[in-house]
Amino acid sequence: MKLKNALTSAAIFLSASAVQAEDSAIVLGKSAYGAFCAVCHGEDGKGGGQVGELFQVKPPSLTKLSERAGGRFPFPDVYHVIILGMEAPGHGTSEMPVWGDYFMADALEDRGVSKTDALYIASGRALSLVYYLESIQD
């Protein structure tokens, strides 16, 4: 009976930790979005950022990613665009920065951070952005 109670308690704790970790990722992603993305895509993610208004091709609404992907949030595609940038074949280059390079360089500036650790940090920052974008879908 004690083992069953211990396993139940552990399961409840782990479930709560997973939800809390997901919530934390969204909070971190929202912060990163405000710092890096909002200037082009707007505070609300609908494409009306101050700098974005200056572009020949306006940044799209990031609240419609699921809708444009047939109703399911395109998690791996969004992560790919954040990490590697975006080139649209036949439509020219994108104005969007390659955030993976920026996140790597930023992490490497910290003393004692190895390239491997910097890669994990950059990946985590991009993942938190993707989780946040998933949370703001209309």
UniProtKB/TrEMBL annotation:
Q: Which GO terms describe its molecular function?
A: electron transfer activity; heme binding; metal ion binding
Query: Where in this chain does the record put each Cytochrome c domain?
Result: 24-137
Tell me the keywords, alphabetical order: Heme, Iron, Metal-binding, Signal
| Any Pfam family | Cytochrom_C
Q: Which InterPro entries match?
A: Cyt_c-like_dom, Cyt_c-like_dom_sf
Q: Which residues form the signal peptide?
A: 1-21
Q: What is the official name of this protein in its record?
A: Cytochrome c
